[in-house]
Amino acid sequence: MIYDKHIFICVNQRAEGAPRKSCGEAHGMEIVEAFKKKLKEKKLSIKLRAQKSGCLDICDFRQTLVVYPEGIFYVGVSLNDVDEIIEEHIVNNRIVERLKLENVRAARTQ
After folding, report:
1. Which of 18, 72, 75, 95 matches a 20 to 30 Å C-alpha distance to 101?
2. Is domain 5-109 in CATH 3.40.30.10, yes or no?
């Protein structure tokens, strides 16, 4: 494995009038840049990378990213969540439960 943690942030943008939303439209690149900047500032001793990705195909949940190798999808991510994801998931290996896809999906069906 090249990276201990690898973060893919959706920046997909669909054409205007497309029937489905695009989670990357609102703040995709801003979130990518925030992750890169904050991870660099932390000077962590693990090998990691944050980068943009194309569609992760769960756009109905707003801004999406996935962290590997765990394969944890976070949804509804805003710029305000970047520090928490870095501190909890990347530094302390604790999943941010309130943003985890399965938990958000379950809450919607209740």
Report:
1. 18
2. yes
- d(C-alpha 24, C-alpha 59), whole Å: 8
81 neighbors 96 (Cβ within 8 angstroms): yes
Structure tokens at 13: 């943008």
Q: Which of 36, 42, 104 is nearest to 72 (CA)?
A: 104
Strands 48-53 and 5-10: parallel
Q: Domain spans of the chain?
A: 5-109
The pLDDT averaged over each successive group of 10 residues in the chain (110 residues) is 92 78 76 96 94 88 93 95 97 96 84
**Prior bond to 69 cis, omega within 30?**
yes
Q: At 94, list the tokens.
A: 């604790």
How many other CB atoms are there within 10 angstroms of residue 54's CB atom? 11
